[in-house]
Amino acid sequence: xxxxxxxxQIHILxxxxxxxxxxxxxxxxxxxxxxxxxxxxxxxxRQHKEWKMKLPRVEPFYAVKCNDHPILLRVLAALGTxxxxxxxxxxxxxxxxxxxxxxIIFANPAKMASQIRHAAxxxxxxxxxxxxxxxxxxxxxxxxxRLVIRIRADAADPQCPLGMKFGCDAVSDAPRLLELxxxxxxxxxxxxxxxxxxxxxxxxxxxxxxxxxxxxDHAARIGYNMTILDLGGGYLGNxxxxxxxxxxxxxxxxxxxxxxxEGVVVIAEPGRFYAAAAFTLATNIHSKRNCANHTMYYINDxxxxxxxxxxxxxxxxxxxxxxxGQRALPNKVEKCSIWGPTCDGLDQVMDAAxxxxxxxxxxxxxxxxxxxxxxxxxxxxxxxxxxVHAVISEPLWLLLKDRHPLSEDNxxxxxxxxxxxxxxxxxxxxxxSLSSFLFDQLL
Length: 443
What we know:
Helices cover 33% and strands 21% of the residues. With 443 residues, it is α/β, with parallel strands linked by helices. α7 (132-141) runs parallel beside α8 and α9 (202-221) runs parallel beside α10. The protein is elongated. Residues 42-276 form the Orn/DAP/Arg decarboxylase 2 N-terminal domain. It catalyses: L-ornithine + H(+) = putrescine + CO2.
């Protein structure tokens, strides 16, 4: 089996195992030096259940840009989510899994002409706009498209604001754009907004939903019958976060402005909510430098790789020390900084951290690394991207194994530790004792 095939399989856990115990077993095996991820499929399923329970009226359309790892996309498709795509490439990734085009929203308000033509050829007819030029392009290239007008609805302090780039003014611009669309004979079927990625202000959703109601009413006055409300993204997904306050605000606003009796279809575009906590990253300390007042640790992933989220997503990462050989660490912590592997001085993961004294060969683990990490990572300076090892519990495997686009081929029950599967046969014959030892330890 080729390495690429191994990486795209989901490995079924033994009953006593978890994603974290697998990660630590890979470290303890001594055969892994490169940084790597463990993807916990169970975390994706748990988040989906949470969404359906807290936001029962809102259909999730996963934002592919957040993390487009094939296993994550297949699991979400099997769970029945829709997909928010921003480009031809993302549309193709979703369609190639066999997802119906009507489960996709082309949620990029400024689309290239070639990509509008591609969407039309593939039957992806639901798309957003926020300006006159886009309406004229769509009139020429895809006049039968179902359009959703995107309004600006900024939260007070989102992790990543988006309103400076997308979204028309709900009061001054939206009515004018709707009237132009009507003149052009285009089908505007709904309203969308995005309060900003990583929103922590529930009232932002209430304001936006209230503004959308006014636009629905204006659209009705000029002859439109809108049927879709898109709540966009912004939903937190780290392990120490909750959407309780957001969901309470959203449900209250929906009940007030869009009662169920109206039949409006409500969707949203969560990204980090599904992806963030599912991925845990393990990095190896390959060098260290003792300075006057702190220690500098150099690890084998950095801001040009997985930690680009620090630059582009304003992420705050939390290091967890894991010593090689499971030796006991001192109770004290010391000031340190953590640096990536490249020769760029900007490649700094953390400028001020507190960790127990660590040695070369020890590991630093980072949880909540699934959002805006791998999709933006590069191989700058020749350093490889971390491999992803996906795991699933047996009960969840039984739940998902026959749900399209997943099948039995996507899962592995091989008793051999899967991180050894990438070795060549020649390498395996040179270390029979280690292989046997690991096999015994895992069983």
